[in-house]
């Protein structure tokens, strides 16, 4: 029964149930094709269904497009692809995490002052070291891909943090 409840709450299952389309087909039709995405790959759970939370692999340039879409309030090339209210909801903190981090509807938010400079971003942190950072104040999107699916996150996280601290943040000042 617990497995059934978890599946019924999975966003991918809810999309498939509500649209009558498998999640990959729906994502391709509604988001990926309109935005000119290349190939995508979906991992499946033990139930054989595509995993919405951590199962989609995209080309880095397509991951950047997701960030650009969020940066533009849900619009892509002048056309509203997802509701602007959705972007507002994902970037509004709902759960406080340690330090300057919070979480809002599957997206992370970071807001901190370092040496008098505001460091603010929102984005996705995915399985295997995938990261998507959106810096609204700088009109900048950064995507990092790693593919380290079999080890805990120490290796890729230290590299990602170094890239942010040594390259991205100094260039924003």
General description of the model:
The chain has 173 residues and is α+β, with helices and mostly antiparallel strands. It contains 6 helices and 10 strands; from the N terminus they run αααββαββαββββββα. The protein has a 6-stranded antiparallel sheet with strand order 5-6-7-8-9-10, covered by helices on one side. Strands 1-2 form a two-stranded antiparallel ribbon. Strands 3-4 form a two-stranded antiparallel sheet. A hairpin with a 2-residue loop joins β6 and β7 (107-114). The protein is globular. It starts with a helix and ends with a helix. Residues 1-5 have low confidence and may be disordered.
Q: What sequence of helices (H) and strands (E) makes up the elements?
A: HHHEEHEEHEEEEEEH
The overall strand count is 10
**Shape type:** globular
Q: Output the structural class.
A: alpha+beta
Enumerate the spans where pLDDT stays under 50 for 5 or more consecutive residues.
Answer: 1-5
Q: Which quaternary structure do these chains form?
A: single chain
Identify the strand order in the major beta sheet: 5-6-7-8-9-10
- Strand % is 15-25%
Q: Please estimate the helix content.
A: 25-40%
- What's the story with the biggest beta sheet? 6 strands, antiparallel
Task: Please give the radius of gyration in angstroms.
Answer: 17 Å
* Number of helices, counting only DSSP H or I runs of 4 residues or more: 6
Q: Terminal Cα separation, in Å?
A: 52 Å
Mean pLDDT: 84
């Amino acid at each position: 029964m617990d497995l059934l409840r978890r599946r019924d709450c999975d966003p991918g299952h809810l999309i498939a149930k509500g649209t009558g389309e498998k999640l990959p087909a729906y994502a391709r039709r509604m988001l990926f094709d309109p935005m000119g995405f290349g190939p995508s790959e979906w991992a499946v759970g033990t139930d054989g269904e595509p995993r919405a939370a951590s199962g989609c692999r995209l080309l880095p340039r397509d991951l950047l497009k997701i960030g650009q879409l969020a940066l533009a309030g849900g619009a892509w090339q002048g056309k509203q692809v997802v509701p602007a209210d959705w972007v507002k909801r994902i970037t509004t903190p709902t759960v406080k995490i340690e330090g300057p981090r919070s979480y809002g509807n599957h997206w992370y938010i970071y807001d901190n002052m370092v040496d008098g400079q505001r460091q603010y971003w929102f984005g996705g942190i995915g399985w295997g070291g995938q990261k998507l950072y959106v810096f609204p104040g700088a009109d900048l999107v950064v995507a990092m891909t790693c593919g380290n699916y079999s080890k805990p996150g120490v290796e890729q996280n230290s590299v990602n943090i170094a890239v942010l601290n040594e390259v991205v943040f100094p260039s924003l000042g």
